[in-house]
Amino acid sequence: MELIGLLNYAVFMAIFIGIYSLLALGLNIQWGFSGLFNAGIAGFFAVGAYTSALLTTPESSVHLGGYQLPVVVGWIGAMIAAGLIAWPIGKVCLRFRSDYLAIATIGVAEIIRLVVKSEGWMTGGARGVNKVPRPFGDLSYLYSQLAYLALVIGIVLIVYWAIERQISAPWGRMMRGIRDNEDAATAMGKDIKARRLEAFIFGAAVMGLGGALFAHFNRSITPEAIDPMIATFLIWIMLILGGSGNNRGALLGVAVVWIIWSASEFVTDQLPTEYAIKAKYMRVFIIGLLLQIVLRFRPEGILPEPQGTADNPELKTFQKQEGAAK
Amino acid sequence: MPFMEFVNFYLMPGIVLGSIYALGAVGITLVFGILRFAHLAHGDLATLGAFAALGVVTIFGVSPWVALPVAMVACAFMAIGIDKLFYDYLSERPKIIVVMSSLGIALMLRAVVQVVWGVDTETYTRGIVRPDDYWGIRIRDREIYTIIAMFLIVGVLWAFLQKTKWGKAMRAMSDNPDLALLSGVDNRKITMLTWGIVGVLCAASGFFLGINTELKPLMGWTMLLPMFAAAILGGVGRVEGAVIGGLIVGIAEETSVLFIPGEYKAAMAFAILLLILLVRPTGLLKGKVL
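Predict the joint structure of the above. Result:
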């Protein structure tokens, strides 16, 4: 009995790690490879979650919908919707230094939160969207969890593969070139604004997919499901700690931070109520402090971005190809 | 709608709110202009200032107006301390790293407020204050003080920047850091001075928001977007621009309820921000673009 409970918990944790992995991979495209500061991750997450939920749920009196489309359509819709939100923001802000993007994305997340809360006819208001269909949801509890975990792992692997491919392609090298030396990239005739916009939209779409997976896993999505600042910030610390610019680092960071975060929640829940609430905020403080420590002492993270040295022949071949092209 | 009704219910609250934003925006514009990064912990530093004043009020039982200078000094030291402990070590790195660090600081400051003061809504004084009538304009005393204090604080700061040696050094850093360093401006002292002033301004904006509404741990964070919109609207690095920007954003937010649902009041700042970035990124008074 104990063992089953433990297994259930482990699977539950693993699914969450998978969902957060998508968010971290999305942020890695934006920040790690392109140097774009997105402080509104929770906003893109929410757009994805709500889009997919509304596209796939049966008709309801409290929110828009009744389309009952297949889950796959919902997930694709989530990616498109998140990308569409990213497009105008990127269009306006990517001309400037990333500081402006940071402020604007904070604003976007705030507006999305407002829309979700006040447009009840669309999102169900505080009640949210329920009865979101879950793939393999008809199986018994444990099997259903395991099947969903397999699905999440599959999607993470596909996204991981897609990003790796894209990043080792000329596009990815160009992105890193733009990130590291904008002037040089401009001088080489690269269209910086357009490339950055592509990266921003690509990353946002991946985040939207993460939101969709979350909604279908929970079978519902409500405005309270996610605390925008905490969620956004957790993704940031995951990526920075794991190693921005390195997809494996991002995945590792997600696992490490999520386990620390959940374990600390487990500890604080044991405390008497009066301390438990305070301890909840202490956890946030410690996560903030962790970011400061990582930024100061190990800014490259646990797994740094590969720099194309002798023990990384993959990047060397690229350099050779580049040399040959010249 | 009668004109006086517009003045009493939309314009005056807008000017009061705008004055609060202006105090914050001036601080943001100083950091943006002199230290050259977007300080995302600005709002939460204002929250800390507001709660520090509350702490003085509850412990010593004094009037909030006595607590304000104490909170200003506390906040100034806090800002300098944060810089020395965290931002200073990142000064050689790309500025965006400091922006990220400040996002973490924002969360840490808010957590401190939540741990020390809890999450409940607080006020400085109890009871409802009825507005007085001045030739048809209905306004509360504290609202008059807010507007006067804003102009006073910004006026002193402006005179300081224009007339004193240190103020000129700060402006020189803002205009051209390399030239300023060559002319013998002490970078570290200017940074410290800037943070001290920013702390004072933060405490003031948090305090006036608290005295005109309520104190909540999230009060500063929700001000962040309007304050940035105001700073960029006025022109980054321009103190007088930040005041104009703050007033415009405040009035726009309060009058927006005439045209759009009240829930979306907070969206006005965002709309202004995107609009100004789109049509005139240097702001109204020709500031910097980073």
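Chain B touches chain A through 46 residues (CB under 8 Å).
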